TrEMBL record, chain A:
It comes from Thiobaca trueperi. InterPro entries: CobW/HypB/UreG_nucleotide-bd, Hyd_mat_HypB, P-loop_NTPase. GO terms for molecular function: GTPase activity; nickel cation binding; zinc ion binding. This is Hydrogenase maturation factor HypB. One of its GO terms (biological process) is protein maturation.
UniProtKB/TrEMBL annotation, chain B:
The keyword Transport applies. One of its GO terms (molecular function) is ATP hydrolysis activity. The lineage of its organism: Bacteria, Pseudomonadati, Pseudomonadota, Gammaproteobacteria, Chromatiales. Residues 79-313 form the ABC transporter domain. Belongs to the ABC transporter superfamily. Keywords: ATP-binding, Lipoprotein, Nucleotide-binding, Transport. The keyword Nucleotide-binding applies. Transmembrane segments: none annotated. PANTHER family: OSMOPROTECTANT IMPORT ATP-BINDING PROTEIN OSMV (PTHR43117). It holds the Pfam family ABC_tran. This is ABC-type lipoprotein export system ATPase subunit. SUPFAM superfamilies: P-loop containing nucleoside triphosphate hydrolases. It comes from the Bacteria. It comes from Thiobaca trueperi. Gene3D superfamilies: P-loop containing nucleotide triphosphate hydrolases.
Length: 234, 336
Protein backbone atom coordinates (compact mmCIF):
# COMPACT_ATOMS: atom_id res chain seq x y z
CA UNK A 1 0.00 0.00 0.00
CA UNK A 2 1.12 3.54 -0.72
CA UNK A 3 0.66 6.04 2.07
CA UNK A 4 0.39 9.71 1.07
CA UNK A 5 0.38 12.39 3.78
CA UNK A 6 -1.64 15.40 2.70
CA UNK A 7 -1.33 18.53 4.82
CA UNK A 8 -2.46 22.12 4.51
CA UNK A 9 -4.11 24.90 6.48
CA UNK A 10 -7.87 24.66 7.10
CA UNK A 11 -10.09 25.02 4.04
CA UNK A 12 -7.30 25.23 1.48
CA UNK A 13 -8.92 22.48 -0.56
CA UNK A 14 -7.32 19.24 0.68
CA UNK A 15 -10.53 17.24 0.51
CA UNK A 16 -11.46 18.66 -2.87
CA UNK A 17 -8.08 17.75 -4.33
CA UNK A 18 -8.09 14.25 -2.80
CA UNK A 19 -11.59 13.67 -4.21
CA UNK A 20 -10.61 14.77 -7.72
CA UNK A 21 -7.43 12.69 -7.68
CA UNK A 22 -9.20 9.66 -6.19
CA UNK A 23 -11.71 9.72 -9.00
CA UNK A 24 -8.89 9.35 -11.51
CA UNK A 25 -7.11 6.70 -9.46
CA UNK A 26 -10.40 4.82 -9.10
CA UNK A 27 -10.81 4.80 -12.88
CA UNK A 28 -7.39 3.15 -13.07
CA UNK A 29 -8.76 0.36 -10.89
CA UNK A 30 -6.97 1.44 -7.71
CA UNK A 31 -8.68 1.22 -4.34
CA UNK A 32 -8.33 4.49 -2.46
CA UNK A 33 -9.11 5.33 1.19
CA UNK A 34 -8.71 8.34 3.44
CA UNK A 35 -7.90 8.89 7.11
CA UNK A 36 -8.98 12.37 8.16
CA UNK A 37 -7.45 14.07 11.22
CA UNK A 38 -9.02 17.22 12.57
CA UNK A 39 -9.32 18.97 15.90
CA UNK A 40 -12.95 19.58 16.82
CA UNK A 41 -15.25 18.40 14.08
CA UNK A 42 -15.30 17.59 10.41
CA UNK A 43 -17.82 16.76 7.77
CA UNK A 44 -15.23 15.57 5.31
CA UNK A 45 -16.15 11.95 6.05
CA UNK A 46 -19.56 12.38 4.45
CA UNK A 47 -17.94 13.95 1.37
CA UNK A 48 -15.71 10.91 1.00
CA UNK A 49 -18.53 8.46 1.75
CA UNK A 50 -20.70 10.05 -0.94
CA UNK A 51 -18.01 9.06 -3.43
CA UNK A 52 -17.79 5.55 -2.02
CA UNK A 53 -14.34 6.13 -0.53
CA UNK A 54 -13.63 4.28 2.75
CA UNK A 55 -12.84 6.87 5.43
CA UNK A 56 -11.65 6.85 9.06
CA UNK A 57 -11.95 10.00 11.18
CA UNK A 58 -9.84 11.01 14.18
CA UNK A 59 -10.72 14.07 16.23
CA UNK A 60 -7.80 15.27 18.30
CA UNK A 61 -9.88 17.47 20.61
CA UNK A 62 -7.51 19.52 22.72
CA UNK A 63 -4.30 18.51 20.99
CA UNK A 64 -2.86 19.50 17.67
CA UNK A 65 -4.21 17.23 14.89
CA UNK A 66 -0.70 16.71 13.57
CA UNK A 67 0.61 15.55 16.94
CA UNK A 68 -2.43 13.31 17.14
CA UNK A 69 -1.74 12.03 13.65
CA UNK A 70 1.74 10.82 14.54
CA UNK A 71 0.52 8.96 17.61
CA UNK A 72 -2.05 7.18 15.47
CA UNK A 73 -0.34 6.74 12.15
CA UNK A 74 0.63 3.09 12.65
CA UNK A 75 -2.94 2.11 13.46
CA UNK A 76 -4.02 4.20 10.52
CA UNK A 77 -1.73 2.23 8.24
CA UNK A 78 -3.03 -1.06 9.65
CA UNK A 79 -6.61 0.09 9.05
CA UNK A 80 -5.81 0.87 5.43
CA UNK A 81 -4.21 -2.53 4.97
CA UNK A 82 -7.28 -4.24 6.47
CA UNK A 83 -9.50 -2.37 4.00
CA UNK A 84 -7.37 -3.75 1.19
CA UNK A 85 -6.45 -0.29 -0.07
CA UNK A 86 -3.88 0.39 -2.77
CA UNK A 87 -3.51 4.03 -1.76
CA UNK A 88 -4.21 5.58 1.64
CA UNK A 89 -4.31 9.36 1.96
CA UNK A 90 -4.01 10.96 5.37
CA UNK A 91 -5.59 14.42 5.51
CA UNK A 92 -4.60 16.79 8.31
CA UNK A 93 -4.77 20.53 8.84
CA UNK A 94 -1.52 22.22 9.77
CA UNK A 95 -3.19 24.66 12.08
CA UNK A 96 -0.07 26.31 13.42
CA UNK A 97 1.89 26.53 10.13
CA UNK A 98 4.68 24.84 12.01
CA UNK A 99 3.52 21.25 12.51
CA UNK A 100 3.93 18.84 9.70
CA UNK A 101 2.90 15.21 9.47
CA UNK A 102 5.49 14.40 6.82
CA UNK A 103 7.46 11.20 7.35
CA UNK A 104 10.82 10.42 5.74
CA UNK A 105 10.30 7.99 2.87
CA UNK A 106 6.52 8.54 2.69
CA UNK A 107 5.22 10.77 -0.07
CA UNK A 108 4.41 14.16 1.42
CA UNK A 109 1.92 16.52 -0.21
CA UNK A 110 1.31 20.07 0.93
CA UNK A 111 -1.77 21.92 -0.31
CA UNK A 112 -1.65 25.71 -0.42
CA UNK A 113 -4.31 28.12 -1.51
CA UNK A 114 -3.50 30.90 -3.97
CA UNK A 115 -6.13 33.08 -2.28
CA UNK A 116 -4.03 33.15 0.88
CA UNK A 117 -1.77 35.79 -0.65
CA UNK A 118 1.72 35.76 -2.09
CA UNK A 119 3.53 35.95 1.25
CA UNK A 120 1.98 32.73 2.53
CA UNK A 121 4.45 30.22 1.04
CA UNK A 122 7.25 31.89 2.98
CA UNK A 123 5.31 31.70 6.23
CA UNK A 124 4.47 28.02 6.13
CA UNK A 125 7.11 25.94 7.85
CA UNK A 126 8.22 22.33 7.36
CA UNK A 127 4.78 21.35 6.07
CA UNK A 128 5.63 23.17 2.82
CA UNK A 129 9.41 23.33 2.88
CA UNK A 130 9.88 19.60 3.35
CA UNK A 131 7.05 18.34 1.14
CA UNK A 132 7.74 16.31 -2.02
CA UNK A 133 4.81 17.73 -3.89
CA UNK A 134 3.14 21.11 -3.52
CA UNK A 135 -0.40 21.55 -4.82
CA UNK A 136 -1.73 25.07 -5.37
CA UNK A 137 -5.52 25.41 -5.33
CA UNK A 138 -7.93 28.24 -6.13
CA UNK A 139 -5.72 29.57 -8.91
CA UNK A 140 -8.97 30.04 -10.84
CA UNK A 141 -10.07 33.01 -8.77
CA UNK A 142 -6.89 35.07 -8.54
CA UNK A 143 -5.27 37.20 -11.21
CA UNK A 144 -2.73 35.77 -13.65
CA UNK A 145 -0.04 37.95 -12.04
CA UNK A 146 -0.72 36.55 -8.59
CA UNK A 147 -0.73 33.01 -9.98
CA UNK A 148 2.72 33.53 -11.43
CA UNK A 149 4.05 35.27 -8.34
CA UNK A 150 2.57 32.63 -6.06
CA UNK A 151 4.16 29.83 -8.08
CA UNK A 152 7.49 31.63 -7.90
CA UNK A 153 7.25 32.00 -4.12
CA UNK A 154 6.39 28.32 -3.78
CA UNK A 155 9.49 27.45 -5.74
CA UNK A 156 11.62 29.59 -3.47
CA UNK A 157 10.03 28.09 -0.38
CA UNK A 158 10.68 24.53 -1.53
CA UNK A 159 13.22 24.67 -4.36
CA UNK A 160 13.28 21.70 -6.67
CA UNK A 161 10.07 20.13 -5.33
CA UNK A 162 7.34 19.13 -7.72
CA UNK A 163 4.61 21.73 -7.68
CA UNK A 164 1.43 22.11 -9.66
CA UNK A 165 -1.86 23.92 -9.82
CA UNK A 166 -4.99 21.89 -9.23
CA UNK A 167 -8.51 23.22 -9.30
CA UNK A 168 -10.38 21.47 -6.49
CA UNK A 169 -13.73 22.14 -8.14
CA UNK A 170 -13.20 21.32 -11.82
CA UNK A 171 -10.34 18.89 -11.27
CA UNK A 172 -8.14 20.69 -13.78
CA UNK A 173 -4.58 19.54 -13.02
CA UNK A 174 -5.69 16.47 -11.06
CA UNK A 175 -4.49 13.98 -13.65
CA UNK A 176 -0.91 15.24 -13.40
CA UNK A 177 -1.17 14.87 -9.67
CA UNK A 178 -2.53 11.34 -9.96
CA UNK A 179 0.46 10.47 -12.16
CA UNK A 180 2.85 11.64 -9.46
CA UNK A 181 0.98 9.83 -6.72
CA UNK A 182 0.96 6.40 -8.36
CA UNK A 183 4.75 6.60 -8.39
CA UNK A 184 4.99 7.06 -4.61
CA UNK A 185 7.05 4.60 -2.57
CA UNK A 186 5.17 1.79 -0.86
CA UNK A 187 4.87 1.78 2.91
CA UNK A 188 4.50 -1.75 4.23
CA UNK A 189 5.29 -0.64 7.79
CA UNK A 190 6.25 2.50 9.69
CA UNK A 191 8.33 0.86 12.35
CA UNK A 192 11.52 2.84 12.89
CA UNK A 193 10.51 5.53 10.38
CA UNK A 194 11.06 9.14 11.39
CA UNK A 195 9.23 12.40 10.98
CA UNK A 196 10.96 14.79 8.61
CA UNK A 197 11.05 17.44 11.28
CA UNK A 198 10.20 17.42 14.99
CA UNK A 199 6.84 18.86 15.92
CA UNK A 200 6.97 21.93 18.15
CA UNK A 201 7.15 21.08 21.82
CA UNK A 202 3.86 21.55 23.62
CA UNK A 203 4.86 21.59 27.24
CA UNK A 204 4.02 25.02 28.60
CA UNK A 205 1.42 25.07 31.39
CA UNK A 206 -1.17 26.52 29.01
CA UNK A 207 -0.77 23.47 26.78
CA UNK A 208 -1.87 21.29 29.66
CA UNK A 209 -4.91 23.22 30.69
CA UNK A 210 -3.73 26.26 32.67
CA UNK A 211 -6.05 29.24 32.13
CA UNK A 212 -4.84 31.78 34.71
CA UNK A 213 -2.77 34.67 33.36
CA UNK A 214 0.29 35.95 35.26
CA UNK A 215 3.98 35.32 35.90
CA UNK A 216 3.37 32.89 38.78
CA UNK A 217 1.50 30.46 36.53
CA UNK A 218 4.18 30.33 33.85
CA UNK A 219 6.37 27.30 34.44
CA UNK A 220 8.19 25.04 32.01
CA UNK A 221 8.77 26.06 28.40
CA UNK A 222 8.02 29.80 28.50
CA UNK A 223 9.35 32.09 25.82
CA UNK A 224 9.27 35.84 26.23
CA UNK A 225 8.71 38.37 23.51
CA UNK A 226 10.55 41.69 23.40
CA UNK A 227 8.34 44.74 23.06
CA UNK A 228 10.56 47.59 21.96
CA UNK A 229 9.34 51.10 22.71
CA UNK A 230 9.41 53.66 19.99
CA UNK A 231 12.71 55.55 19.88
CA UNK A 232 12.30 59.08 21.19
CA UNK A 233 12.17 61.76 18.54
CA UNK A 234 15.33 63.84 18.34
CA UNK B 1 34.29 20.84 1.05
CA UNK B 2 31.30 22.51 -0.52
CA UNK B 3 32.15 25.86 -2.08
CA UNK B 4 28.81 27.53 -1.36
CA UNK B 5 28.12 26.66 2.23
CA UNK B 6 31.74 27.28 3.17
CA UNK B 7 31.87 30.76 1.66
CA UNK B 8 31.77 33.67 4.09
CA UNK B 9 28.11 34.57 4.52
CA UNK B 10 28.60 38.11 3.26
CA UNK B 11 29.96 36.73 -0.01
CA UNK B 12 27.24 34.10 -0.26
CA UNK B 13 24.40 36.57 0.25
CA UNK B 14 25.98 39.07 -2.12
CA UNK B 15 26.23 36.49 -4.91
CA UNK B 16 22.83 35.00 -4.13
CA UNK B 17 20.37 37.51 -2.69
CA UNK B 18 17.74 34.76 -2.53
CA UNK B 19 19.76 33.18 0.26
CA UNK B 20 19.53 36.21 2.49
CA UNK B 21 15.75 36.35 1.98
CA UNK B 22 15.56 32.70 2.94
CA UNK B 23 17.74 33.11 6.04
CA UNK B 24 15.68 36.12 7.07
CA UNK B 25 12.49 34.06 6.77
CA UNK B 26 13.90 31.58 9.30
CA UNK B 27 13.84 34.32 11.89
CA UNK B 28 17.46 34.14 13.11
CA UNK B 29 19.20 37.26 14.33
CA UNK B 30 21.70 38.88 12.00
CA UNK B 31 24.67 36.53 11.48
CA UNK B 32 28.32 37.55 11.45
CA UNK B 33 29.04 37.90 7.73
CA UNK B 34 32.60 36.63 7.95
CA UNK B 35 31.49 33.17 9.04
CA UNK B 36 30.46 30.49 6.61
CA UNK B 37 26.87 29.25 6.63
CA UNK B 38 27.99 25.87 7.93
CA UNK B 39 29.96 27.33 10.86
CA UNK B 40 27.28 29.79 11.75
CA UNK B 41 24.62 27.07 11.91
CA UNK B 42 26.92 24.85 13.98
CA UNK B 43 27.24 27.43 16.67
CA UNK B 44 23.54 28.38 16.85
CA UNK B 45 21.68 26.88 19.79
CA UNK B 46 19.64 23.74 18.99
CA UNK B 47 16.63 25.55 20.37
CA UNK B 48 16.94 28.32 17.77
CA UNK B 49 17.27 25.75 15.02
CA UNK B 50 14.11 24.04 16.24
CA UNK B 51 12.29 27.38 16.17
CA UNK B 52 13.31 27.90 12.57
CA UNK B 53 11.43 24.76 11.54
CA UNK B 54 14.34 23.06 9.78
CA UNK B 55 17.31 21.01 10.87
CA UNK B 56 20.87 22.08 10.09
CA UNK B 57 21.39 19.65 7.26
CA UNK B 58 17.99 20.59 5.85
CA UNK B 59 18.92 24.26 5.88
CA UNK B 60 22.23 23.55 4.13
CA UNK B 61 20.47 21.38 1.58
CA UNK B 62 17.75 24.00 1.09
CA UNK B 63 20.27 26.75 0.39
CA UNK B 64 21.98 24.68 -2.27
CA UNK B 65 18.69 23.71 -3.88
CA UNK B 66 17.60 27.34 -3.79
CA UNK B 67 20.68 28.53 -5.64
CA UNK B 68 20.23 25.87 -8.31
CA UNK B 69 16.53 26.70 -8.67
CA UNK B 70 17.16 30.41 -9.15
CA UNK B 71 19.84 29.64 -11.74
CA UNK B 72 17.39 27.40 -13.57
CA UNK B 73 14.71 30.08 -13.51
CA UNK B 74 17.16 32.50 -15.10
CA UNK B 75 17.97 30.03 -17.86
CA UNK B 76 14.32 29.20 -18.50
CA UNK B 77 13.46 32.83 -19.08
CA UNK B 78 14.48 32.45 -22.65
CA UNK B 79 12.44 29.35 -23.51
CA UNK B 80 10.56 29.88 -26.76
CA UNK B 81 7.45 28.43 -28.28
CA UNK B 82 7.09 28.96 -32.01
CA UNK B 83 3.95 26.97 -32.59
CA UNK B 84 1.16 25.05 -30.94
CA UNK B 85 -0.70 22.30 -32.76
CA UNK B 86 -4.14 21.07 -31.79
CA UNK B 87 -5.05 17.55 -32.85
CA UNK B 88 -8.76 16.71 -32.61
CA UNK B 89 -10.21 14.00 -30.38
CA UNK B 90 -13.95 13.37 -30.17
CA UNK B 91 -17.13 15.32 -29.40
CA UNK B 92 -19.72 14.72 -26.67
CA UNK B 93 -21.29 11.88 -28.68
CA UNK B 94 -17.92 10.21 -29.03
CA UNK B 95 -17.75 10.99 -32.76
CA UNK B 96 -14.29 11.76 -34.11
CA UNK B 97 -13.16 15.35 -34.48
CA UNK B 98 -10.95 15.21 -37.56
CA UNK B 99 -8.97 18.45 -37.30
CA UNK B 100 -5.37 19.49 -36.96
CA UNK B 101 -4.69 23.18 -36.43
CA UNK B 102 -1.32 24.85 -35.99
CA UNK B 103 -0.95 28.34 -34.54
CA UNK B 104 2.32 30.24 -34.72
CA UNK B 105 3.69 32.91 -32.40
CA UNK B 106 2.04 36.22 -33.19
CA UNK B 107 -1.20 34.64 -34.43
CA UNK B 108 -4.67 34.93 -32.99
CA UNK B 109 -7.19 32.12 -33.05
CA UNK B 110 -10.76 32.81 -31.99
CA UNK B 111 -13.14 30.23 -30.60
CA UNK B 112 -16.85 30.66 -31.32
CA UNK B 113 -19.91 28.60 -30.48
CA UNK B 114 -23.07 28.64 -28.36
CA UNK B 115 -22.87 28.74 -24.57
CA UNK B 116 -22.22 25.27 -23.22
CA UNK B 117 -20.90 24.02 -26.54
CA UNK B 118 -17.47 23.22 -25.17
CA UNK B 119 -15.42 26.40 -25.57
CA UNK B 120 -14.16 26.27 -21.99
CA UNK B 121 -13.27 22.62 -22.39
CA UNK B 122 -11.12 23.52 -25.40
CA UNK B 123 -9.37 26.26 -23.43
CA UNK B 124 -8.83 23.77 -20.59
CA UNK B 125 -7.31 21.24 -23.01
CA UNK B 126 -4.86 23.84 -24.22
CA UNK B 127 -4.15 24.97 -20.68
CA UNK B 128 -3.07 21.53 -19.52
CA UNK B 129 -1.45 20.61 -22.87
CA UNK B 130 -3.78 17.61 -23.14
CA UNK B 131 -2.24 14.40 -24.40
CA UNK B 132 -5.32 12.32 -25.07
CA UNK B 133 -5.85 12.13 -21.31
CA UNK B 134 -8.83 14.50 -21.02
CA UNK B 135 -12.47 13.65 -21.79
CA UNK B 136 -12.12 15.02 -25.34
CA UNK B 137 -9.09 12.92 -26.23
CA UNK B 138 -7.44 15.95 -27.85
CA UNK B 139 -3.68 16.33 -28.11
CA UNK B 140 -1.57 19.48 -28.11
CA UNK B 141 1.88 19.60 -29.69
CA UNK B 142 4.48 22.23 -28.84
CA UNK B 143 6.82 23.21 -31.68
CA UNK B 144 5.40 20.26 -33.59
CA UNK B 145 6.30 17.72 -30.92
CA UNK B 146 4.76 16.00 -27.94
CA UNK B 147 5.81 18.23 -25.02
CA UNK B 148 8.22 16.70 -22.53
CA UNK B 149 6.69 15.74 -19.19
CA UNK B 150 8.47 18.65 -17.55
CA UNK B 151 6.76 21.10 -19.80
CA UNK B 152 3.39 19.89 -18.63
CA UNK B 153 4.03 19.58 -14.95
CA UNK B 154 6.67 22.05 -13.88
CA UNK B 155 5.27 25.29 -12.59
CA UNK B 156 8.06 27.35 -14.01
CA UNK B 157 7.59 26.02 -17.51
CA UNK B 158 3.96 26.98 -17.48
CA UNK B 159 3.29 27.71 -21.12
CA UNK B 160 -0.15 29.12 -20.81
CA UNK B 161 -1.34 32.30 -19.15
CA UNK B 162 -5.08 32.59 -18.69
CA UNK B 163 -7.04 35.82 -18.47
CA UNK B 164 -10.46 34.89 -17.22
CA UNK B 165 -13.38 37.08 -16.29
CA UNK B 166 -13.91 35.91 -12.74
CA UNK B 167 -10.58 36.84 -11.24
CA UNK B 168 -9.81 38.86 -8.14
CA UNK B 169 -6.86 40.66 -6.67
CA UNK B 170 -5.99 39.27 -3.29
CA UNK B 171 -3.12 41.61 -2.55
CA UNK B 172 -3.79 45.23 -1.80
CA UNK B 173 -0.95 46.98 -3.60
CA UNK B 174 -0.69 49.96 -5.88
CA UNK B 175 -0.50 49.19 -9.59
CA UNK B 176 3.19 50.12 -9.48
CA UNK B 177 3.97 47.77 -6.59
CA UNK B 178 1.83 45.03 -8.09
CA UNK B 179 3.55 45.00 -11.47
CA UNK B 180 6.86 45.56 -9.69
CA UNK B 181 6.31 42.38 -7.70
CA UNK B 182 5.75 40.51 -10.95
CA UNK B 183 8.80 42.07 -12.60
CA UNK B 184 10.91 40.98 -9.66
CA UNK B 185 9.77 37.37 -9.99
CA UNK B 186 10.43 37.48 -13.70
CA UNK B 187 13.97 38.69 -12.96
CA UNK B 188 13.87 41.43 -15.59
CA UNK B 189 16.95 43.59 -15.83
CA UNK B 190 15.35 46.96 -15.24
CA UNK B 191 12.23 46.31 -13.21
CA UNK B 192 11.30 49.97 -12.70
CA UNK B 193 11.43 50.79 -16.41
CA UNK B 194 9.38 47.67 -17.13
CA UNK B 195 6.73 48.69 -14.61
CA UNK B 196 6.43 52.12 -16.23
CA UNK B 197 6.06 50.50 -19.63
CA UNK B 198 3.35 48.08 -18.53
CA UNK B 199 1.31 50.80 -16.87
CA UNK B 200 1.72 53.16 -19.83
CA UNK B 201 0.56 50.38 -22.17
CA UNK B 202 -2.42 49.64 -19.95
CA UNK B 203 -3.38 53.30 -19.98
CA UNK B 204 -3.11 53.23 -23.73
CA UNK B 205 -5.71 50.46 -23.83
CA UNK B 206 -8.29 52.06 -21.62
CA UNK B 207 -10.31 55.23 -21.93
CA UNK B 208 -10.19 55.83 -18.19
CA UNK B 209 -6.55 56.49 -17.29
CA UNK B 210 -5.20 55.51 -13.90
CA UNK B 211 -2.12 56.52 -11.98
CA UNK B 212 0.57 54.02 -10.95
CA UNK B 213 -0.32 54.81 -7.34
CA UNK B 214 -3.91 53.57 -7.68
CA UNK B 215 -4.52 50.44 -5.66
CA UNK B 216 -5.26 47.50 -7.93
CA UNK B 217 -8.39 46.73 -5.95
CA UNK B 218 -9.71 50.21 -6.80
CA UNK B 219 -9.36 49.78 -10.55
CA UNK B 220 -12.52 49.58 -12.68
CA UNK B 221 -13.31 46.47 -14.72
CA UNK B 222 -11.86 48.01 -17.86
CA UNK B 223 -8.72 49.27 -16.14
CA UNK B 224 -8.14 45.87 -14.54
CA UNK B 225 -8.53 44.13 -17.84
CA UNK B 226 -6.18 46.60 -19.55
CA UNK B 227 -3.55 46.15 -16.86
CA UNK B 228 -3.73 42.35 -17.06
CA UNK B 229 -3.45 42.40 -20.86
CA UNK B 230 -0.47 44.77 -20.81
CA UNK B 231 1.18 42.64 -18.13
CA UNK B 232 0.64 39.37 -19.94
CA UNK B 233 1.92 40.84 -23.21
CA UNK B 234 5.07 42.41 -21.78
CA UNK B 235 5.92 40.54 -18.62
CA UNK B 236 4.36 37.10 -18.46
CA UNK B 237 6.60 34.07 -18.83
CA UNK B 238 3.98 32.22 -20.82
CA UNK B 239 4.17 32.28 -24.62
CA UNK B 240 0.53 31.23 -24.95
CA UNK B 241 -2.37 33.37 -23.77
CA UNK B 242 -5.96 32.20 -23.34
CA UNK B 243 -8.58 34.88 -23.03
CA UNK B 244 -12.18 34.29 -22.30
CA UNK B 245 -13.86 37.35 -23.87
CA UNK B 246 -12.56 40.90 -23.66
CA UNK B 247 -15.67 42.75 -22.68
CA UNK B 248 -16.53 46.07 -24.11
CA UNK B 249 -15.91 47.68 -20.74
CA UNK B 250 -13.61 50.48 -21.75
CA UNK B 251 -10.82 48.44 -23.34
CA UNK B 252 -9.54 49.22 -26.81
CA UNK B 253 -9.77 45.67 -28.14
CA UNK B 254 -7.94 46.37 -31.36
CA UNK B 255 -4.91 47.78 -29.57
CA UNK B 256 -5.04 44.99 -27.01
CA UNK B 257 -4.73 42.38 -29.73
CA UNK B 258 -1.97 44.31 -31.47
CA UNK B 259 -0.05 44.44 -28.21
CA UNK B 260 -0.33 40.69 -27.69
CA UNK B 261 0.68 39.95 -31.24
CA UNK B 262 3.75 42.19 -31.15
CA UNK B 263 4.70 40.38 -27.96
CA UNK B 264 4.94 37.24 -30.16
CA UNK B 265 2.26 35.49 -28.14
CA UNK B 266 0.07 32.70 -29.39
CA UNK B 267 -3.39 33.97 -28.55
CA UNK B 268 -6.66 32.06 -28.16
CA UNK B 269 -9.80 34.07 -27.49
CA UNK B 270 -13.20 32.69 -26.79
CA UNK B 271 -15.48 35.45 -28.05
CA UNK B 272 -18.59 36.49 -29.93
CA UNK B 273 -17.46 40.03 -30.36
CA UNK B 274 -17.27 40.68 -34.13
CA UNK B 275 -14.39 43.10 -33.62
CA UNK B 276 -12.32 40.35 -32.07
CA UNK B 277 -13.61 37.35 -33.99
CA UNK B 278 -12.99 38.94 -37.40
CA UNK B 279 -9.63 40.35 -36.38
CA UNK B 280 -8.24 36.91 -35.64
CA UNK B 281 -6.51 34.99 -38.41
CA UNK B 282 -8.88 32.07 -38.06
CA UNK B 283 -11.76 30.98 -35.93
CA UNK B 284 -12.66 27.58 -34.58
CA UNK B 285 -16.37 26.76 -34.58
CA UNK B 286 -17.50 24.54 -31.72
CA UNK B 287 -20.75 22.64 -31.44
CA UNK B 288 -21.71 19.74 -29.22
CA UNK B 289 -18.32 19.56 -27.55
CA UNK B 290 -16.47 19.19 -30.83
CA UNK B 291 -14.73 21.38 -33.39
CA UNK B 292 -16.98 21.39 -36.48
CA UNK B 293 -15.17 23.94 -38.61
CA UNK B 294 -12.13 26.17 -38.87
CA UNK B 295 -12.81 29.38 -40.80
CA UNK B 296 -10.04 31.56 -42.17
CA UNK B 297 -11.05 35.20 -42.06
CA UNK B 298 -11.86 36.10 -45.68
CA UNK B 299 -11.18 39.31 -47.61
CA UNK B 300 -14.88 40.16 -47.55
CA UNK B 301 -14.97 39.67 -43.80
CA UNK B 302 -11.98 41.99 -43.40
CA UNK B 303 -13.81 44.63 -45.41
CA UNK B 304 -16.82 44.20 -43.20
CA UNK B 305 -14.60 44.47 -40.19
CA UNK B 306 -13.70 48.01 -41.30
CA UNK B 307 -17.38 48.93 -41.41
CA UNK B 308 -18.07 47.33 -38.05
CA UNK B 309 -15.17 49.25 -36.60
CA UNK B 310 -16.62 52.49 -37.89
CA UNK B 311 -19.97 51.64 -36.31
CA UNK B 312 -18.22 50.78 -33.10
CA UNK B 313 -16.30 54.05 -33.14
CA UNK B 314 -19.61 55.92 -33.50
CA UNK B 315 -21.00 54.08 -30.48
CA UNK B 316 -17.81 54.69 -28.49
CA UNK B 317 -18.08 58.37 -29.28
CA UNK B 318 -21.66 58.48 -27.97
CA UNK B 319 -20.57 56.67 -24.84
CA UNK B 320 -17.74 59.09 -24.33
CA UNK B 321 -20.05 62.08 -24.63
CA UNK B 322 -22.47 60.53 -22.15
CA UNK B 323 -19.60 60.13 -19.74
CA UNK B 324 -18.75 63.80 -20.11
CA UNK B 325 -22.32 64.81 -19.29
CA UNK B 326 -23.35 65.91 -22.76
CA UNK B 327 -26.72 65.48 -24.49
CA UNK B 328 -27.17 63.02 -27.34
CA UNK B 329 -29.85 64.78 -29.38
CA UNK B 330 -28.60 65.25 -32.92
CA UNK B 331 -29.49 62.34 -35.28
CA UNK B 332 -26.83 59.63 -35.11
CA UNK B 333 -24.76 59.44 -38.32
CA UNK B 334 -24.03 55.80 -39.05
CA UNK B 335 -21.04 55.29 -41.34
CA UNK B 336 -21.82 53.96 -44.82
N1 LIG C 1 -12.69 28.35 -6.56
C1 LIG C 1 -12.11 27.28 -6.01
N2 LIG C 1 -12.59 26.78 -4.85
C2 LIG C 1 -12.00 25.70 -4.33
C3 LIG C 1 -10.89 25.08 -4.94
N3 LIG C 1 -10.52 24.03 -4.18
C4 LIG C 1 -11.36 23.99 -3.13
N4 LIG C 1 -12.28 24.98 -3.21
C5 LIG C 1 -13.35 25.28 -2.26
O1 LIG C 1 -12.77 25.59 -1.01
C6 LIG C 1 -13.59 25.13 0.06
C7 LIG C 1 -12.79 24.29 1.03
O2 LIG C 1 -12.38 23.10 0.37
P1 LIG C 1 -12.07 21.74 1.14
O3 LIG C 1 -11.62 20.76 0.10
O4 LIG C 1 -13.19 21.33 2.01
O5 LIG C 1 -10.83 22.19 2.02
P2 LIG C 1 -10.04 21.34 3.12
O6 LIG C 1 -8.63 21.79 3.06
O7 LIG C 1 -10.28 19.89 2.94
O8 LIG C 1 -10.72 21.87 4.45
P3 LIG C 1 -10.64 21.25 5.93
O9 LIG C 1 -10.51 19.78 5.78
O10 LIG C 1 -11.91 21.65 6.56
O11 LIG C 1 -9.45 21.89 6.56
C8 LIG C 1 -14.73 24.38 -0.59
O12 LIG C 1 -15.84 25.23 -0.64
C9 LIG C 1 -14.22 24.08 -1.97
O13 LIG C 1 -15.27 23.97 -2.89
C10 LIG C 1 -10.40 25.65 -6.18
O14 LIG C 1 -9.40 25.20 -6.79
N5 LIG C 1 -11.05 26.74 -6.65
MG1 LIG D 1 -11.00 18.55 4.31
ZN1 LIG E 1 0.57 21.97 15.58
Amino acid sequence: MQLITVAGSPSVGKTSVILRVSEILGQQGLRVGVAKFDSLSTSDDSLYEQKGIPVAVGLAGSICPDHYFVSNVEDCLAWGQRQGLDILFSESAGLCNRCSPHIAGVMAVCVVDALAGVQTPKKIGPMLRLADLVVITKGDIVSQVEREVFAYKVRLANPGARACFCNGITGQGASDLANEIVQAAHTPSLEGQRLRFPMPAAVCPYCVGETAIGETHQRGNVKKMTFADQAEAV
Amino acid sequence: MNPVIDLPLERLTLDHPCVSDFLASLGFSEPDGRQSLRHWLDQLADEDILDAGMERHQILDHVQRLIREVQRMEQDRHARVDSLTLIGGRNKQGEPEPVEISVRAGQILCIVGPTGSGKSRLLADIECLAQGDTPTGRRILVNGQTPAGDFRHALDRKLVAQLSQNMNFVVDLSAREFIGMHAQCRMVNEPQAMVERVIACANDLTGEKFSPETSVTQLSGGQTRALMIADVALLSASPVVLIDEIENAGVDRQRALELLVTGEKIVFISTHDPLLALRGDRRIVIRNGGIVDVLTTSALERENLNRIEAVDATLMNIRDRLRRGLRIEEPVQWPQ
